[in-house]
Structure formats: structure tokens, C-alpha cells
Write a structure and sequence with these properties.
It comes from Phenylobacterium zucineum (strain HLK1). This protein is α/β, with parallel strands linked by helices. The chain is built from ten helices and five strands. Strands 2-3-1-4-5 form a five-stranded parallel beta sheet, sandwiched between helices. Bound molecules: cytidine-5'-diphosphate (2 copies).
């Protein structure tokens, strides 16, 4: 377990992983990577460019040109962006185009928090602390419905639930880097938890992992 202290936070849409990841980043003073934002940006920019989202090579060419300064667009937080992201994320060339930037982040000497679907399985399988955050589809749809409404997107709940179910199937069913817990990830079901409750549970899991990691660093030195 040598190497930087990296925390991976994976899980399905609207499980609360982003909230947990950003609070953990603050708690441990670590930089955070929202890897979903990379896929959202590619999905939206490819749609704007008129590309066929099923054409993995064309979308990958665009993904190779993605720059950090492209990432601040509020449209990336919309419902359509989530859908476009999961469509482009099935293509191996697109995933490869976004891999280096994620690996560089995972290897920062000071450690990091990585949020996504495959951070603990593919991007940083050696991470000392891994969480897999879930909640029931109904709870996640309710949370996403409220979140979208707060952003000015008033979509019927049933449609948000259908989006969530479709995205779970696509993200979990794809051949390359499917959404699933790493064998050594700790599962955290937030269905019945408030944001503070979920964060407390996450912090306890990370504290235990950090103690193990600290001991392994001492043994190695
Ligand atoms: O990153 P992910 O899509 O998994 O979810 P998120 O953006 O962290 O959370 C989705 C929404 O649910 C946000 O508006 C959170 O404030 C809310 N949330 C909640 O109500 N209760 C929780 N335990 C966690 C998140
Ligand atoms: O916030 P939410 O969970 O809805 O989505 P996100 O984390 O922003 O991810 C958007 C989409 O990008 C997901 O549905 C996945 O298809 C894809 N994604 C991925 O394939 N791998 C990642 N590491 C992160 C996101």
C-alpha cells in the first residue's frame, strides 16, 4: 500500500458521491477530480459539434482536444449532459482519450480524491481508501429531481427516474470499465442518510483506511 493517499468514490448517478467526495477533499485537504465532468464535457461538446454520439472515433478526436478551461460550462450540469456523457462513455477510444489526465491526477504525490464510476477499479486500483456509494433508484431520482429543479430544469419525477434506471443499465452494462465496486471497496448505502449522516459514515470508513495506510507507510520506510 505504498504511494499517495488516494480516496476513490464511485457509484451510480445521484447517489451522493460528489457531495461526499468534495467534503472528504475538504476534510483531508486533498485536491478532487470529478471525472464525470470530463465525460459530461465531451458529451455536450460533441453534441454541439453535431457529432454522432455513437461514433466513438469521432467523439474521441474531440475528447483528445479537451482542455481544463473547457470545463466550467454550466450546461455540463444539465440532465441532457448526463445522458450524453453516458452515451459517449461506452466507447473505448473516448475512455482512453480521458485516461491520462485521470492517471496524472491519481498519481499526485500529495494524494487526491477521485469521483466517478471506475476510479477504484480502473484508474487507481491501488488506492488505499475506496468507497462505493449507492442509494435506491427512487431516492436517487428524488434527489436528482430536486437538484434539477433548483437549477431551473423542471422535469417530471417519472422521467428523472427513467433516466436514472437507463443510465444505471448503460453504465453497468458496458464492456469497458463498467460501473461496479472494486473488490476492496466499502459499500455505503445513503438511501436513509442525510448529507451529514452520509459524510460521517464515509469519514469513518476513510479514517480506518488511513490508519492502515499510515502503518503500511511506516513499515515500508
Ligand atoms: O455525485 P452524485 O451524482 O452521486 O450525487 P450528488 O451530486 O452528490 O448528490 C445529488 C443530490 O442529492 C445533491 O443535490 C445532494 O445535495 C443531494 N443529496 C442528498 O439529498 N442526500 C444525500 N445523502 C446526498 C446527496
Ligand atoms: O453526477 P452523476 O452521477 O449523474 O454523473 P457523473 O458522475 O457526472 O457522470 C456522468 C456519466 O459519465 C456517467 O453516467 C457515466 O456514463 C460517465 N462516467 C464514466 O463512465 N466514468 C467515470 N469515471 C465517470 C463518469
Amino acid at each position: 500500500m505504498r504511494g499517495p493517499f488516494v480516496i476513490t468514490v464511485d457509484g451510480p448517478a445521484a447517489s451522493g458521491k460528489g457531495t461526499i467526495a468534495s467534503r472528504l477533499a475538504r476534510e483531508y485537504d486533498l485536491p478532487m477530480l470529478d471525472s464525470g465532468l470530463l465525460y459530461r464535457a465531451v458529451g455536450v461538446l460533441a453534441t454541439r459539434a453535431g457529432l454522432d454520439l455513437d461514433d466513438g472515433e469521432a467523439v474521441a478526436r474531440l475528447a483528445r482536444g479537451l482542455k481544463a478551461e473547457h470545463l466550467g460550462d454550466p450546461e455540463f450540469r444539465t440532465r441532457g449532459a448526463g445522458e450524453a456523457a453516458s452515451r459517449v462513455a461506452v466507447h473505448t477510444p473516448v475512455r482512453l482519450a480521458l485516461r491520462d489526465v485521470q492517471l496524472a491526477f491519481a498519481r499526485r504525490p500529495g494524494g487526491a480524491v477521485l469521483d466517478g464510476r471506475d476510479q477504484g477499479t480502473v484508474i487507481c486500483p491501488e488506492a488505499p481508501a475506496k468507497l462505493y456509494v449507492t442509494a435506491s433508484p427512487e431516492v436517487r431520482a428524488e434527489r436528482r429531481w430536486k437538484q434539477l429543479k433548483g437549477q431551473g430544469e423542471d422535469v417530471p419525477y417519472a422521467e428523472v427516474l427513467a433516466d436514472i434506471v437507463r443510465r444505471d443499465e448503460r453504465d453497468g452494462g458496458r464492456a469497458d470499465s463498467p460501473m461496479r465496486p472494486a473488490p476492496d471497496a466499502v459499500l455505503l448505502d445513503t438511501s436513509e442518510l442525510s448529507i451529514d449522516g452520509a459524510f460521517d459514515a464515509a469519514r469513518r470508513i476513510v479514517e480506518a483506511a488511513r490508519a492502515r495506510w499510515g502503518r503500511s507507510q511506516e513499515d515500508a520506510s
